[in-house]
Amino acid sequence: MVELNTFSITARCARTGQLGVAAATGLPAVGMLCPFVRAGVGAVATQSFVNPYLGIWGLDLLAQGGDAGTVKELLLGRDPEPRKRQFTLVDRWGNSGAHTGEESDPWRGHLTGEDFAAAGNLLDGEEVLRSMVEIFRSTPGQPLVERLILALEAGQDAGGDRRGGRSAAVKVAYREDYPYLDLRVDQHPDPVSELRKTYEVVQRDLLPLLPDLPTRASLAEHSRDLSEGR
C-alpha cells in the first residue's frame, strides 16, 4: 500500500462553478494519486492508504447525478478497507463530504462546509485544517486556484505534514474536458512555495492564452459545418 500522508482541500467556486483540489505531502508526486476533478461534475481528493479508484469511482458517481453525501456512502460500501482511507469530495452544487478512517495516521481529521472539504493525516494538529478553511472562507472574490494555493500556504504555515514537504499540486476544472489548470511540484524541499512560483509564471505566460484553445462549443460548431457541407 502507498501511504499518502498529506493535507488537502477540495473545493468549488460558487461564482464560476470551477472545481478543484490542492494537496501537499512528504512523499513525491502527490498530483499523481490525490486530485481528481471533472468540470461540471465534482472534485475528489484521495489520501492516507490511498485508493485512487475512490477518485475515479467518485467522479463517475457524481456524474450520474449523486450528491456528495450519497456518493460518500457509496464509496465506503465499495472500498474493501475504508478504515485505512481518507477522502473528500465536493459536488457541482457545492455539497461536501469527507471520510477519515480510524487507521489513518494521527493527527488525522477533516472539516467540511459549503463549497469545501479539507482533510489531513500525520499532521501537527487540527490547526492545519482550521487555517486552510479560514483563508478559503475569507477569500470568496478571488479565483479558485488562488484560494486553493492560499489554503495550502496557510496549512503549511500551521505545521503541515509532520515529515516536512516534498510535493504539492493544484488541479482546477472549468467548462472543458481538459483541465483549466494542473500544476505539480513533484520533488522539492519547499514544494508549496515552489507551487506558488510556478503558478505566478503560469498566470503571466499561459493563462492569457487559454481562451485561444479549442472548446467543446467551437468543435461542435465545426462538426455541424462539416456535416452541412459548409
Which helices and strands, and how do they pair?
Blueprint: E1 3-4, E2 6-12, E3 19-25, H1 30-33, E4 35-38, E5 42-49, H2 53-63, H3 68-78, E6 85-91, E7 96-100, E8 108-113, E9 116-121, H4 127-137, H5 144-157, E10 167-173, E11 181-185, H6 191-205, H7 216-227
Antiparallel strand pairs: 1-5, 2-3, 2-9, 3-10, 4-5, 5-6, 6-7, 8-9, 10-11
Helix pairs in contact: 2-3, 4-5, 5-6
Description:
This protein is an alpha+beta fold. It has a single domain, classed as Aminohydrolase, N-terminal nucleophile (Ntn) domain (Glutamine Phosphoribosylpyrophosphate, subunit 1, domain 1, 4-Layer Sandwich), CATH 3.60.20.10. 34% of the residues lie in helices and 28% in strands. The strands form two sheets. It has a six-stranded antiparallel beta sheet with strand order 8-9-2-3-10-11, with helices on one face. α2 (53-63) packs across α3 (68-78) and α5 (144-157) runs antiparallel to α6 (191-205).
For the record, give the distance between the C-alpha atoms at the N and C termini, rounded to a whole number.
55 Å
Number of alpha- plus pi-helical segments: 7
CATH superfamily placement: Aminohydrolase, N-terminal nucleophile (Ntn) domain
- Rg for CA atoms: 18 Å
Q: Which term fits the overall shape?
A: globular
What is the helix fraction of residues, given as a range? 25-40%
Strand pairing plus helix content: what structural class? alpha+beta
Which architecture per CATH? 4-Layer Sandwich
**DSSP strand (E) fraction?**
25-35%
**Domain module count:** 1
